[in-house]
From TrEMBL:
Its main location: membrane. Belongs to the methyl-accepting chemotaxis (MCP) protein family. This is Methyl-accepting chemotaxis protein. Keywords: Cell membrane, Membrane, Transducer, Transmembrane, Transmembrane helix. GO terms for biological process: chemotaxis; signal transduction. It comes from Lysinibacillus irui.
Length: 582
């Protein structure tokens, strides 16, 4: 079942209804007050009228005629009948008098010797016992009061089965001032009430007419004054639907409604400007977020490349450490060999004096020397090759470190650009600015680490070059030694005659070999240093790789935040686009 739309009462109708209710309440209060005032006024007039009419009627009764009636209070007494007729005439000519009668008191007996026909028709009779009629105690007390005080009085309003009444009692005195009877006049209070109600109804009629006229005037005035509010309601409904392309409402008054209309027009204009500014800012934030997201993707790719390069560098560092260890072992072996050569040279120098006697043994020693020198030459050549290979690896590491330095510089530049874009985004980009600053710091750390590695590699290359030069010199010396030994072997037949000369040469050779031994010790120390440096380089390379991985995670998080920022900007644009603004 379709639900009926709830009807809303307009403000003008509500205010008119409130005004009518107030006026109606005022009319009802006025009616009540009018009725109360008129009724009390009439009752006050009634008391005065009862007193005045009672005194007049009491004076009109002849005392002798009254005595005749009191002596024979019956319908057979012509005086009684004539007084009844007079009472009936007074009753007929009065709107408020209902009953008239005389009252006498004789001890405890209270009687009415003469009554108007209005009472007789109800079943009463002449000389009626008033107590038997069921009079109220107040009425009986007032009767006894007037016979004691001989002064006119009136009862309170009382009710019986025939209606509501107020009775006035006026004493009738003889020549000596003795009270013979009391003249009683019953006023019908309901007639006074009806009169008061009639006058109050006229007041109510005037009030209703005034109320209708006032309601029409108030409704017209309110409708005219509240027309701008109705226009405001229609305009605000359009604004709630998202339509801000509204013409300004006319300001027709300088009161609160006019101020409200003017403020509403200003609010619409301000809201238009806010929506336009929000739309522009949202579009700029969305574009910036998209650009930042693309830049972060590029940075992610760059860091992936950096991570791969660092892995390769780490692997190369492991190989470098292994080669350095091998070079150390080789150099140590060369050192041992050279020491052996030195010892052998000393032995040759010592044995040269006995060369002639030990020619056979000298020949054998020379052969051994040739073999040993060939082994030394081979070992030195291998060491030179290893050191040269180490130099090539150092050059490759330097190239990779150069790539890392370039990537760190680009990352630093990207972080700077991201910080600038975050600053442009204002408060919305404050969190992203912190992330960009962290990225910049990591890039600077990476660049600093790369510079340290480059410096260490330069030292390695320098030491390696020196090792290569020493190795070349050693090779030349070994080759020279081989040539000399070969010459010695060829000239061995002349050893006996030129033993002294050979001894000098051998001593020179011994000195040279000792120098070579000392040089080999230095080479050994340098290679050990190079091995230790290779180990440190490997650890540093792995640390750089871990830092690069951490930077990659940071860049990925920044990229995700940039994507979220782009989505939020799109949502803001969708919300703003619900408003129609040129």
């Amino acid at each position: 079942m379709k639900k009926r739309k709830k009807q809303h009462m307009s403000i003008s109708k509500k205010l008119t209804a409130i005004m009518v209710s107030i006026l109606l309440l005022f009319g009802l209060v006025t009616l009540g007050l009018s009725y109360y005032i008129v009724r009390n006024s009439n009752l006050t007039d009634m008391d005065q009228s009862l007193s005045d009419k009672g005194m007049i009627l009491a004076k009109t009764i002849d005392i002798d005629t009254l005595r005749s009636i009191l002596d024979n209070p019956s319908k057979n007494n012509s005086d009684a009948l004539r007084l009844t007729s007079e009472m009936d005439a007074i009753n007929e000519n009065s709107d408020s008098i209902t009953n008239l009668y005389l009252i006498t008191v004789n001890g405890e007996n209270i009687n009415a010797p003469v009554l108007s026909s209005s009472i007789l028709e109800l079943g009463a009779e002449y000389n009626q016992d008033m107590i038997a009629m069921g009079l109220s105690p107040d009425f009986l007390a007032r009767i006894k009061e007037i016979f004691n005080t001989k002064k006119a009085t009136a009862t309170d309003i009382y009710s019986d089965e025939f209606g509501s009444y107020k009775t006035g009692l006026t004493p009738i005195l003889d020549e000596d001032g003795n009270i013979l009877a009391a003249y009683a006049i019953d006023y019908d209070v309901s007639r006074v009430t009806a009169k008061a109600m009639s006058e109050a109804l006229w007041t109510l009629l005037v009030t209703v007419i005034f109320l209708i006229g006032s309601s029409i005037a108030v409704y017209s005035l309110l409708r005219k004054k509240l027309t701008p509010i109705q226009q405001l309601s229609l305009q605000s409904k359009k604004v709630a639907e998202g339509n801000l392309e509204l013409d300004p409402l006319p300001v027709t008054s300088a009161d609160e409604i006019g101020t409200l209309t003017q403020n509403f027009n200003s609010m619409i204009e301000t809201l238009k400007n806010v929506i336009k500014s929000t739309t522009n800012v949202s579009a700029r934030v969305s574009n910036t977020a998209n650009v930042l997201s693309a830049n972060m993707q590029e940075a992610t790719d760059s860091y992936n490349n950096v991570a791969s390069s660092m892995q390769e560098i780490a692997s190369g560092a492991d190989l470098q450490v292994q080669k350095a260890k091998e070079s150390t072992i080789t150099i140590e072996e060369m050192s041992i060999g050279i020491q052996r050569i030195a010892m052998t040279s000393n032995e040759i120098s010592e044995s040269s004096i006995l060369a002639s006697e030990e020619a056979e043994r000298g020949n054998e020693s020379t052969n051994k020397s040739v073999s040993q020198m060939n082994a030394i030459s081979k070992a030195v050549n291998q060491s030179a090759a290893s050191v040269k290979l180490l130099g090539e690896h150092s050059n490759k590491i330097e190239e990779i470190v150069g790539i890392i330095t370039g990537i760190a510089s680009q990352t630093n530049l990207l972080a700077l650009n991201a910080a600038i874009e975050a600053a442009r985004a204002g408060e919305a980009g404050s969190g992203f600015a912190v992330v960009a600053d962290e990225v910049r710091k990591l890039a600077e750390q990476s660049e600093a680490s790369a510079r340290e590695i480059s410096t260490l590699i330069s030292h390695i290359q320098h030491d390696t070059n020196e090792s290569v030069n020493i190795m070349i010199h050693a090779v030349e010396e070994v080759d020279h030694g081989i040539v000399m030994i070969n010459d010695s072997e060829k000239s061995f037949s002349q050893i006996l005659t030129s033993i002294h000369h050979v001894t000098g040469q051998i001593q020179e050779l011994s000195a040279t070999i000792e120098e070579m031994a000392a040089g080999m010790e230095e080479v050994t120390s340098a290679v050990k240093d190079m091995e230790e440096f290779s180990i440190n380089s490997k650890d540093n390379t792995r640390a750089v790789a871990a830092t690069s991985a951490s930077q990659l995670n940071t860049v990925q998080r920044v990229s995700e935040e940039a994507q979220v920022l782009s989505e939020l900007s799109d949502e803001l644009l969708n919300v703003v686009h619900t408003f129609v603004v040129k």
